[in-house]
Amino acid sequence: MKLKTILLTVGVVSTLTSSIQATEIGEVLFDAKCASCHIKTRPSDFSTLVAPPIMGVMRHVKMQYKTREDAVKFIAEYTLNPQRDKAVCMPQKIKRFGLMPSQKENVSMAELVTIGGWMYDNFPSANLQGNQQGKKCNKYNTCKTKKQKPKKVQSSSQFLISSGMPHMTKIVKQNWDNTVLNLSETQKKKLLVVRGATMQSVMHITPQIKKLEKKITIMAMQGESPQKLNPMVDQLSQLKAEATKVHIRCIYDTNNILTKKQMEFLSK
Ligand code: HEC
């Protein structure tokens, strides 16, 4: 579910601001200076990328440079002075995105050493390197298979009905230019409005749900009494009901915009 990715990102950002440890300075710098172009997670929508995601970059860097020191040196030098013949990524990457603009004005050599070290230590995650089965995946969700994710307690859905109800706005988006579905311009305009409204509500409610779930879980594990926790649970169920209603509204609105045939096509 796409929402999960959004949540993960929100989660990462919020843990970041709350606890900036020394080892994370590299990440803070990366976020400030590189993340506008290089995303840290596995992309869900390749069409919106403006540069290769960093897991891909690091895979190629590590194939070319075997030690941490050499890899960091390369990253730092390339970032200050990108050159076609020095690039380690595939030529079609440069063809697609263009050569990286020099970041000389934005970042110092010292900062790049920190950033490069952090990139080296965190990307790509174990199973992308291919041979380190069982090593824990990192928090950037760059793992290929679910199996190898660390065994954490799975957080539940933000909806009351956790399976079966289709995520219409996502399905529609995936089929946006599908010639069989054949959305008209008017339909597209209306669907965008529905998508906007849905995403806005969900983005508003979901963080509250996650926060409350986390709080209840922690308090419960610390031995807090049911009397104290139950009202929080009631509040949680109210928020989840709200999210579920947004979900239902989205299905209803989409249903009204699409023809019966189009709906049938999407529910296949
Ligand atoms: C304005 C967008 C932009 C920003 C900001 C940016 N990059 Fe890039 N970067 C690119 C593009 C586009 C490519 C792919 C083309 C290329 O390799 O030159 C790339 C490629 C790379 C590569 C791979 C080079 C190779 O061998 O192919 C590295 C390493 C890299 N960037 C590091 C960084 C670091 C570190 C920062 C932050 C200090 C950064 N980039 C900021 C756009 C950007």
Please outline the helices and strands:
Blueprint: H1 2-18, H2 25-33, H3 54-64, H4 68-80, H5 91-97, H6 109-122, H7 126-129, H8 168-174, H9 185-221, H10 226-257, H11 260-267
Helix pairs in contact: 2-6, 4-6, 9-10
Bound molecules: heme C (HEC).
| Average pLDDT rating | 81
Which stretches of 5+ consecutive residues score pLDDT under 50? 14-19, 127-137, 143-155
- Total domain count: 2
Which CATH-level-2 architecture of the largest domain?
Orthogonal Bundle
CATH topology of the largest domain: Cytochrome Bc1 Complex, Chain D, domain 2
Structure description:
The chain folds into two domains: 21-152, Cytochrome Bc1 Complex, Chain D, domain 2; 155-268. It is an all-alpha fold and 268 residues long. It contains eleven helices and no strands. 59% of the residues lie in helices and 0% in strands. The relative contact order is 0.10. Residues 14-19, 127-137 and 143-155 have low confidence and may be disordered. The protein is flat and about 55 Å long. Helix 2 (25-33) crosses helix 6. The site of heme C has 26 residues, from helix 3, helix 4 and helix 5.
Give a brief description.
By secondary structure, this protein is mainly alpha-helical. It contains eleven helices and no strands.
Which labels suit this protein?
single chain, 268 residues, mainly alpha, 2 domains, binds heme C
